[in-house]
């Protein structure tokens, strides 16, 4: 969400958040606080992200904590980064803001939360076993009515006392409609109409289901966390001859660190000595190790396979690749997909509606029909209530999307929000930038064609001097081909003419180097060459001297990428390039793209995108894929902006919605494949849950389904939906 200058982002960790309904309640509650412009609770990693007015941020933060304490007293609110993250859910924090909390706070966060989870499961199992034993005694032994009732009540309180207590607390705070209320009303109601065993059994079954659900949710949280767990735990800082293990946050730019075999590279930097193979799969999804040696740059998150390396650090931890990626992934869930928002709205109206229907079901038939017993219809109403709980949807949908984001990151694709993951499903137009995206962007001088008495070497020398200060890849390739030292003192009057080329004075002569437009503009006579590639024309003192042909290679992966996209249902693939028409057309033909637009400047690319936008239907979406450096405006304008090889360009990571960590265009097809599978699994869950609910609501209203089936339909559906959502993590894109 774009915000003005006065908005600041804050993040809180919600320790002990294990019901999705509570997450929704907190999100709605905090949203209403004055000064909060946006708020999103991520159930899957127990964090709350909010945007608030900066000049009152501390005050608003206090109000937020108070609000959460009121809504959910069991939740412990931690400022993001002050304590270690909960191991069972949230990722290891990408930026522990302050060091003064020291190791103790870090340690406390890790150990406590993990232990707490296992401990609470043990306590719960003990409670359920005791409650069940007492219930079985009451049911099996021939006791007097009073004693039987006392034993059943004791059993009920041991099993579900906390649920009733939570429901009462919520009612006092004016929050009536939640699952605790539904369960309490249904089971207490069963006691009132004399169905003691059923009251106890239903509560027991519900608690067992909740137990399994929280184990399943924690499992899936852990598997997602494991995918994202690229955060390095330490750095070996080298000072003099001494090596000291420190936290990555303490290392400064220019420091030397040692990375031993098997360790993660903790910070971005340049190798000073040593050579090794790097496992880059955590960042790029590539399985083949990358060979590195002294002089190469390495990124944090790579794993050193075999040699010891000394690295000079080039970025502090907060700016390093790992920190950026963790930050992107952790913030991904604050941008929710339309399907997730639909569920939030759905639950808001659905629960009160169900409670009203249940109340009518209990009261109306006994008044209207003779012979209808009050207790019978109250029982049906209670069954109706239990079935209506929307848990399955509320839990499994965010988990499904979160798993999709996890599966993408495992494949080297960073998706910045579940809304973008969902948007990929509707991408029908894909626009590629050519250079560096479909082609390697590595230019080589393929031919030197001197005219008017110049020699090849002399022509190349003039061109190399003219391109001396340009950072363009073409200029670099010319300097590389010349391969000799360039003396700056021989140059004067350097003038870059945008979109045309360069004008300089070399040893007293005016040199022009650029495209055909430059020659025409300066009235230089020349014959158009027939060679394919980028042509650089050279004129000396307005006299044509010849031309160089520079060509760029197509990536091995590009043709496959375009085939896969077509297979996935993309209607039209367009290629945009600043290159001349002949080159653009030749590459387009080779790859099988539908349309090619050549000789475009960056602003023209946005115009081309807008033309497509006007042709398509409102539901269809356009994805733009670029290598980032000069594509920022187009990335921002497209429905889904995809930055390629995003490890290189910070601007691209900022502007894009999806960042492909490698240089392979086919990863876009993988991302669409994962998005389609994720949507399919999410909709399976929605339809399955609603269908089962509908069937059981009808059976309950007609008195066919008892409380047992009611609870099974609620808890069972939730469990199946969570397990189904976990399948998302297993998606492996298999593309042609």
Structural summary, described in words:
By secondary structure, this protein is α+β, with helices and mostly antiparallel strands. The strands form five sheets. It has a seven-stranded mixed beta sheet with strand order 14-26-25-24-15-22-23, sandwiched between helices. The two termini are 36 Å apart. The chain has 23 helices and 26 strands.
Outline of the structure:
Helices cover 49% and strands 19% of the residues.
Keywords, please?
736 residues, alpha+beta, 7-stranded mixed sheet, 6-stranded antiparallel sheet, 23 helices, 26 strands, elongated, disordered N terminus
User: Which segments are poorly predicted (pLDDT under 50) over 5 or more consecutive residues?
Assistant: 1-5, 82-116
Radius of gyration: 32 Å
Q: What about the largest sheet?
A: 7 strands, mixed
| Total number of beta strands | 26
Share of helix, binned? 40-55%
Q: Give me the number of helical elements.
A: 23
Oligomer: single chain
Mean pLDDT: 80
| N→C terminal distance | 36 Å
Could you give the order of strands across the largest sheet?
A: 14-26-25-24-15-22-23
Derived structural class:
alpha+beta
Q: Using the alpha-carbon principal axes, give the shape.
A: elongated
Strand content: 15-25%
């Amino acid at each position: 969400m774009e915000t003005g200058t006065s908005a600041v982002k804050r993040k809180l960790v919600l320790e002990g958040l294990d019901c999705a309904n509570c997450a929704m309640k907190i999100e709605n509650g905090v949203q209403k606080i004055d000064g909060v412009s946006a708020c999103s609770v991520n159930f899957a990693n127990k964090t709350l992200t909010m945007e608030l007015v900066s000049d009152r941020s501390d005050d608003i933060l206090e109000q937020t904590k108070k609000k959460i304490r009121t809504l959910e007293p069991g939740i412990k609110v931690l400022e993001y980064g002050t304590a270690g993250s909960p191991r069972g859910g949230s990722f290891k924090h990408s930026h522990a803001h302050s060091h003064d909390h020291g190791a103790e706070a870090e340690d406390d966060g890790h150990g406590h939360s993990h232990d707490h989870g296992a401990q609470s499961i043990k306590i719960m199992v003990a409670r359920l076993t005791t409650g069940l034993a007492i219930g079985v005694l009451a049911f099996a032994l021939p006791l007097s009515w009073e004693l039987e009732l006392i034993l059943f009540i004791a059993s009920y309180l041991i099993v579900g006392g906390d649920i009733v207590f939570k429901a009462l607390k919520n009612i006092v705070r004016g929050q009536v409609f939640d699952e605790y209320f539904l369960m309490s009303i249904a089971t207490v109601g069963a006691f009132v109409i004399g169905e003691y065993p059923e009251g106890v059994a239903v509560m027991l079954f519900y608690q067992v289901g909740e137990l399994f659900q929280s184990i399943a949710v924690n499992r899936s949280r852990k598997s997602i966390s494991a995918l994202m767990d690229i955060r390095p735990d330490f750095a070996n800082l080298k000072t003099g001859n001494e090596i000291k293990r420190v936290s990555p946050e303490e290392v400064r730019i220019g420091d030397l660190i040692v990375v031993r075999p098997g360790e993660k590279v903790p910070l971005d930097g340049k190798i000073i000595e040593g050579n090794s193979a790097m496992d880059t799969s955590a960042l790029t999804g590539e399985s083949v190790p990358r060979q590195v040696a002294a002089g190469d740059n390495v990124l944090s998150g790579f794993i050193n396979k075999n040699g010891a390396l000394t690295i000079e650090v080039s970025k502090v931890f907060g700016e390093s690749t790992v920190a950026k990626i963790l930050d992107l992934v952790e913030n991904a869930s604050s941008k929710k997909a339309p399907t997730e928002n639909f569920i939030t709205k759905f639950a808001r109206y659905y629960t009160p509606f169900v409670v009203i229907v249940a109340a009518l079901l209990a009261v109306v038939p006994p008044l209207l029909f003779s012979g209808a017993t009050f207790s019978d219809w109250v029982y049906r109403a209670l069954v109706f209530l239990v079935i209506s709980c929307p848990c399955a949807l509320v839990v499994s949908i965010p988990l499904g999307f979160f798993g999709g984001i996890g599966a993408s990151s495992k494949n080297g694709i960073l998706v910045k929000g579940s809304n973008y993951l969902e948007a990929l499903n509707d991408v029908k137009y894909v626009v590629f930038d050519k250079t560096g995206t479909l082609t390697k962007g590595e230019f080589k001088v393929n031919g030197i064609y001197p005219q008017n008495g110049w020699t090849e070497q002399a022509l190349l020398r003039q061109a190399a001097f003219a391109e001396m200060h340009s950072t363009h890849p073409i200029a670099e390739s010319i300097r590389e081909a010349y391969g000799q030292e360039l003396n700056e003192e021989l140059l004067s009057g350097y003038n870059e003419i945008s979109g045309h080329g360069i004008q300089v004075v070399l040893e007293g002569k005016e040199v022009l180097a650029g495209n055909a437009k430059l020659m025409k503009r300066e009235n230089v006579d020349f014959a158009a060459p027939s060679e394919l590639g980028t042509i650089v024309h050279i004129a000396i003192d307005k006299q044509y001297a010849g031309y160089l042909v520079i060509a760029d290679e197509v990536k091995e992966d590009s043709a496959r990428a375009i085939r896969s996209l077509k297979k996935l249902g993309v209607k039209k693939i367009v290629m945009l390039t600043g290159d001349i028409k002949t080159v653009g057309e030749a590459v387009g033909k080779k790859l099988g793209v539908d349309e090619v637009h050549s000789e475009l400047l960056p602003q023209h690319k946005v115009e081309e995108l807008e033309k497509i936008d006007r042709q398509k239907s409102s539901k269809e979406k356009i994805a733009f894929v670029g290598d980032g450096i000069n594509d920022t405006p187009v990335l921002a304008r497209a429905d889904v902006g995809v930055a390629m090889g995003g490890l290189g360009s910070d601007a691209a990571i900022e502007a894009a919605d999806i960042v492909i960590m490698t240089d392979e265009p086919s990863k876009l097809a993988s991302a669409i494949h994962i998005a389609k599978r994720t949507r399919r699994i999410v909709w399976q869950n929605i339809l399955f849950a609603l269908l089962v609910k509908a069937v059981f609501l009808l059976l309950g209203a007609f008195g066919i389904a008892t409380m047992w089936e009611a609870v099974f339909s609620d808890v069972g559906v939730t469990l199946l939906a969570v397990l189904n959502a976990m399948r998302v993590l297993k998606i492996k894109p298999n593309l042609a």
